[in-house]
């Protein structure tokens, strides 16, 4: 290995907070003392462990197993109780009245859109949908505390993140109908949104794959932040449910993020159920937050029904994620999934209806914020009725327009994989055109933008090449 190349590697390691000691151990410069490796063996009278795998642990002659069930559960951070009352009035909410009103209006808009789209699916006008009932505060609250430049990786119940970042009703509807104006050109199933302009990666159906993607992106952002100090530093933010935390991708991602010390916030929505599986059947530990400590990650558990707590926690997590070159943070947002898992699910087959109705009535992020707004003379019943009426009309209008749009051009079934069509694909195009031409009554191509002419465009390209 050349001297020049070795020097570049050493500079990169120092920039990423990694140093190589005299004994050859590579350690993060900001790592806690118990993570620093040793090259010498334990002495006879040593009082602490010197093994490389567990450093500075005191020796003991008492045989005492750690019993997680006997330890105190991790506390849950909140700013506002379920009655809309601020617990520590000296600190307050750190949110202006205007911001609080905007957050509330977005949560109401999200809940109305969810209700209408769920009904539309039941009417057969949409093929699939997932609601965010009970979790609106997590998505909208956390998104409001991030920088627009931060890179987001969502799961499938983060519609509020898109809405808070500026994704329009038209964009939502176009994707749900997979019409010609859908940015994904109809190639993905409903609620799998994506927006390059908003720095949000397209949602994938495969559970938990976005978690290691976020860890890798955060590592790239760490280098970018280091080598481009003139630009605003960015972080990666990853959302997932507690069910996804049972996947191997979760553990691999957190371990990579911790050992590489990347600027990433992992936000777990613990809503009590992974489809039909309650948390009691998913794990025996203290939720997902307890796993963060095991990976050496700064961790916090938050009341997800308290949007002020969500915002403050996310702001602080972002500050920590960028501190001293970067570090990962895990936030477990506690909530209750009021709605069904999706339109393909009937949650009353595995939980009591009274349980759901109790959570609806007793506590949810929308009613809790509304109580605070009313107590501060910022909201009343008349404003509530007006907001819901106007919002419902806006959603229905966007829905009706998107429903009438044509489907994307048929050519999109072949484009977008290879830079140029392969010979085999060209044969498929010719065969498809032949079938559509010979059986026009069986295949309505007029519902697609350009009709059969889209295939003619591809065949014209073939002749040119």
From TrEMBL:
GO MF terms here are: branched-chain 2-oxo acid dehydrogenase activity; metal ion binding
Q: Provide GO CC annotations from the record.
A: mitochondrial matrix
Check the record and name the SUPFAM superfamilies matching this protein. Thiamin diphosphate-binding fold (THDP-binding)
- Give one Pfam hit by family name: E1_dh
Reactions catalysed, semicolon-separated, are: N(6)-[(R)-lipoyl]-L-lysyl-[protein] + 3-methyl-2-oxobutanoate + H(+) = N(6)-[(R)-S(8)-2-methylpropanoyldihydrolipoyl]-L-lysyl-[protein] + CO2
Q: Which InterPro entries match?
A: Alpha-ketoacid_DH_E1_comp (IPR050771), DH_E1 (IPR001017), THDP-binding (IPR029061)
Names of the cofactor(s)? thiamine diphosphate
- Show where the Dehydrogenase E1 component domain sits: 104-410
Q: Which UniProt keywords apply?
A: Metal-binding, Mitochondrion, Oxidoreductase, Potassium, Thiamine pyrophosphate, Transit peptide
> What subcellular compartments does it reside in?
Mitochondrion matrix
Biological process, per Gene Ontology: branched-chain amino acid catabolic process
Q: What class of enzyme is it?
A: oxidoreductase
* EC number(s) given by UniProt: 1.2.4.4
| Domain of life assignment | Eukaryota
According to its UniProt entry, the function of this protein is described as:
The branched-chain alpha-keto dehydrogenase complex catalyzes the overall conversion of alpha-keto acids to acyl-CoA and CO(2). It contains multiple copies of three enzymatic components: branched-chain alpha-keto acid decarboxylase (E1), lipoamide acyltransferase (E2) and lipoamide dehydrogenase (E3).
Into which family does the record put it?
A: Belongs to the BCKDHA family.
> What is the name attached to this protein's record?
2-oxoisovalerate dehydrogenase subunit alpha
């Amino acid at each position: 290995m050349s001297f020049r190349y070795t020097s570049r590697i050493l500079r990169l390691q120092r920039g990423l907070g990694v140093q190589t000691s005299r004994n050859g151990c590579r350690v993060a410069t900001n790592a806690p003392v118990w993570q620093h490796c040793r090259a010498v063996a334990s002495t006879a009278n040593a009082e602490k462990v010197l093994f490389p795998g567990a450093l500075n642990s005191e020796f003991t002659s008492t045989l005492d197993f750690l019993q997680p069930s006997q330890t105190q559960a991790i506390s849950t951070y909140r700013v506002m109780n379920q009655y809309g009352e601020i617990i520590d009035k000296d600190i307050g909410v750190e949110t202006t009245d205007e911001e609080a009103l905007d957050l509330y209006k977005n949560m109401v808009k999200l809940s109305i859109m969810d209700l209408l789209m769920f009904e539309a699916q039941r009417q057969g006008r949409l093929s699939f949908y997932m609601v965010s009932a009970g979790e609106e505060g997590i998505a909208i609250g956390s998104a409001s505390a991030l920088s627009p430049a931060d890179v987001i990786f969502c799961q499938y119940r983060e519609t509020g993140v898109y809405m808070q970042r500026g994704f329009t009703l038209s964009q939502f509807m176009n994707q749900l109908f997979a019409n010609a104006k859908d940015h994904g050109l109809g190639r993905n199933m409903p609620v799998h949104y994506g927006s390059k302009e908003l720095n949000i990666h397209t949602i994938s159906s495969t559970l938990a794959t976005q978690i290691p993607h976020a860890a890798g992106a955060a590592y790239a952002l760490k280098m970018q932040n280091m080598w481009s100090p003139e630009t605003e530093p960015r972080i990666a933010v990853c959302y997932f449910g507690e069910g996804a935390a049972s996947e191997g991708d979760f553990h691999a991602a957190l371990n990579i993020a911790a050992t590489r010390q990347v600027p990433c916030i992992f936000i777990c929505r613990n809503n009590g159920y992974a489809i039909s599986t309650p948390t009691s059947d998913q794990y025996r530990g203290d939720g997902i937050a307890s796993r963060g400590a095991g990976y050496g990650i700064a961790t916090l558990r938050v009341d997800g029904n308290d949007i002020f707590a969500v915002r403050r926690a996310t702001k602080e997590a972002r500050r920590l994620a960028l501190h001293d070159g970067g570090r990962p943070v895990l936030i477990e947002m506690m909530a209750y999934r009021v709605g069904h898992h999706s339109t393909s699910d009937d949650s009353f087959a595995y939980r009591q209806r009274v349980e759901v109705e109790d959570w609806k009535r007793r506590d949810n992020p929308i009613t809790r914020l509304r109580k605070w707004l009313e107590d501060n003379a910022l909201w009343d019943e008349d404003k509530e009725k007006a907001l819901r009426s106007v919002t419902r009309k806006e959603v229905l209008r966007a829905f009706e327009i998107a429903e009438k749009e044509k489907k994307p051009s048929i050519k999109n079934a072949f484009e977008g994989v290879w830079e140029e069509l392969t010979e085999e694909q060209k044969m498929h195009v010719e065969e498809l055109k032949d079938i559509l031409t010979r059986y026009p009554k069986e295949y309505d191509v007029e519902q697609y933008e350009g009709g059969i002419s889209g295939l003619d465009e591809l065949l014209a390209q073939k002749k040119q090449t």
